[in-house]
Amino acid sequence: MDIAALVTWLLTAVGGFVLLGTWIAKGGVRNPGSTRMAPPLIFGHFALAAIGLVLWIVFVIADTPALAWTAVALLVPVALLGFTMFARWLPAYRARTAAGDAPAERHFPVAVVAGHGLFAVVTVVLALLAALNTGG
Q1: pTM of the predicted protein model
Q2: Domain map of the chain by residue range?
Q3: At what angle do helices 39-62 and 2-25 cross, to 10 degrees?
Q4: pLDDT digit of tens for each residue in the chain (136 aa)?
């Protein structure tokens, strides 16, 4: 279960990198006033998810229950920030704006957003099940 959670976490991270790269490339950092996603929201989500992933990798190697539970606990604010970003992305996606006036998140590929969210949910479930299985 812990390896399955690691695989889905890595797949989630790949989607997240695509979305982050798109957001940066389309001006999310250069024009924070034109985006509905503030840089602290984006980078906070990224940082907490990355820290959790590193902890999960160390857990898989060391088999230390405290690391598993710490990584799972980090997934709570990661998920809340992710839901916040999704809620802010929906209106930008639905808006009919000229390409130059569109916020950076308007350029997110829908399939990547959906895949990132789906793999994130599966990751949370698998990580929680794996942590429960550690007996810690």
Answers
A1: 0.91
A2: 2-133
A3: 160
A4: 999 999 999 999 999 999 999 999 998 888 877 788 999 999 999 999 999 999 999 999 999 999 999 999 999 999 999 999 999 999 888 886 665 678 889 899 999 999 999 999 999 999 999 999 986 5
